Amino acid sequence: MDEYKRTTTPTCTGTSVFATVYDGGVAICSDRKVSMYKMSRFRGVTRQYQLNKYCVVAFSGDFADFQWLQNILQQEEMRLRLTNPKFFMTPKAVHSYLSDLLYYRRSQLNPIWTQLLVGGMQPIDNDFTNMEPYIGVITPKGVSYKAKSVATGMGAMLLNQLLETDVRAKNYQLSEAEAKKLLTKLIELSIYHDCEADNCFDISTIDTANGVRRDNPMKILGNWDLATYNNDYQ
């Protein structure tokens, strides 16, 4: 592929994704909007992809690249199921696969313009009755790492510290309800500070007993009384 055919400036993008482990599972939250530059382009679009019963992939960045990655992941899982119909990719396997793919594309000077978050339940010693929460992150440059809580996109600069402070205060032993409440608070703060954020959002939870569960899309109005005192635009 020639240089001038390669994407250098993504057009339709998604903003922050938030995730945290809780007692026995993982919770992932993202809004339901894709923006063209700074303007709202598509609303009611989920930015989370359920690969199988125990793994969800979410993204910040280029929406087109994420759609392409969904097809790649689905094809890879179908290929592996040819020899074992009951096989599914674990979150750690997906994290490793995407890390290699994004690093390869970056090395070809044709990067995938997405920051990916992989969340799910990881078997301990290949024992699928004994699983632990897993969160992995991959940057467009192929840098990958594990985390117990993370914010991507604009949230990485604005809200990551708040997320870490809250979960560390409880030693990562939040209940599912507490995790959802915390992620909802982060979404509310993001719509105050990020012009690409939307007040309609998804929360997915993954645990051993129930697998992936995604709540119905929710909306939050926030408190805009503070706008009365914000005259910086004048």
UniProtKB/TrEMBL annotation:
<dbReference type="GO" id="GO:0005737">
    <property type="term" value="C:cytoplasm"/>
</dbReference>
<protein>
    <recommendedName>
        <fullName>Proteasome subunit beta</fullName>
    </recommendedName>
</protein>
<keyword id="KW-0963">Cytoplasm</keyword>
<dbReference type="GO" id="GO:0051603">
    <property type="term" value="P:proteolysis involved in protein catabolic process"/>
</dbReference>
<comment type="function">
    <text>Non-catalytic component of the proteasome.</text>
</comment>
<dbReference type="Pfam" id="PF00227">
    <property type="entry name" value="Proteasome"/>
</dbReference>
<dbReference type="InterPro" id="IPR001353">
    <property type="entry name" value="Proteasome_sua/b"/>
</dbReference>
<comment type="subunit">
    <text>The 26S proteasome consists of a 20S proteasome core and two 19S regulatory subunits. The 20S proteasome core is composed of 28 subunits that are arranged in four stacked rings, resulting in a barrel-shaped structure. The two end rings are each formed by seven alpha subunits, and the two central rings are each formed by seven beta subunits. The catalytic chamber with the active sites is on the inside of the barrel.</text>
</comment>
<dbReference type="GO" id="GO:0019774">
    <property type="term" value="C:proteasome core complex, beta-subunit complex"/>
</dbReference>
<dbReference type="GO" id="GO:0005634">
    <property type="term" value="C:nucleus"/>
</dbReference>
<keyword id="KW-0539">Nucleus</keyword>
<dbReference type="InterPro" id="IPR029055">
    <property type="entry name" value="Ntn_hydrolases_N"/>
</dbReference>
<keyword id="KW-0647">Proteasome</keyword>
<dbReference type="InterPro" id="IPR023333">
    <property type="entry name" value="Proteasome_suB-type"/>
</dbReference>
<comment type="similarity">
    <text>Belongs to the peptidase T1B family.</text>
</comment>
<dbReference type="InterPro" id="IPR016295">
    <property type="entry name" value="Proteasome_beta4"/>
</dbReference>
